[in-house]
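Peptidase M14 domain-containing protein
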Amino acid sequence: MKNRCHYPIGTPGQKWTEKEVTEWRNQTQIQRSYQQDVVSKIQQLEHHWIVESYGALSYDTERYPLYVLKNSAWHPDKPTVLITGGVHGYETSGVQGALLFAAQHAADYQADFNLVIAPCVSPWGYETINRWNPNAVDPNRSFYQDSVSEEAALVMDMVAKLDGDILVHIDLHETTDTDESEFRPALAAREGLEYIEDNVPDGFYLVGNTEKPAAQFQSAIIAAVEKVTHIAPADTQGKIIGAEVVQKGVINYPLKRLHLCTSMTECEYSTTTEVYPDSPNVSTQQCNLAQVAAITGALDYLKSQD
């Protein structure tokens, strides 16, 4: 029997109004610094990357400028690779893994690809260690026209203005124990639904595109990441987070229907990484390196297809 619980904000069976959203927002706290943890590292890359601001979040434009890194050897004839991190701001290794790749590994791929890296799409979420934005909106369910999420709308506008089509999009995420202790209960409360506890996958996995699954591409990423951290097994029903496991460590989602970040382009190859940072068998550095391995595994595969 799975546990049920009542989230402390809201009335059971009733969707949140602005009153509950305000109550939820007021209980959030700044817990770390986007400027110190992220912006300072971006600034250190200015000699090797083109660093551009593509806007700022209206919650605090001075505190939350948004940055994208582009390699200087840009050529419209080369395939373009989009890497996003921090769409869910609390998923730390997505942000730090993107920055680590940019600092230490990207030079190996700049001759072959145009690289575009948005390392922290949701800086308010990063600072408050939160899945949502201040309006209790999930940016990673908001990639659609006239989005209600500033985070999604701004990065989509930036990508739409790029010179050339996107071949591959790698979106860096984590699945954490707080998904079950905080974020899914909050989601159920916001929607006026009963929360029923689920399991958190123990290990790394990928979310591909139901319409363009790219099985060999996903398999190459899993093989690369497996050298760094363990891969999540299927549960007793052959599923991970309720989705059928189509191959080792891989599930597929209907990206467009769910308005996920990796649905923002018509790219041929897309994947969403899911690192598990709460395992006693991994360190923070391993989580960051797993994100890097996912990126390099994907790019090495694409290079091998030439």
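thats it. The first helix runs from residue 18 to 26. The two ends are 51 Å apart (CA to CA). bye
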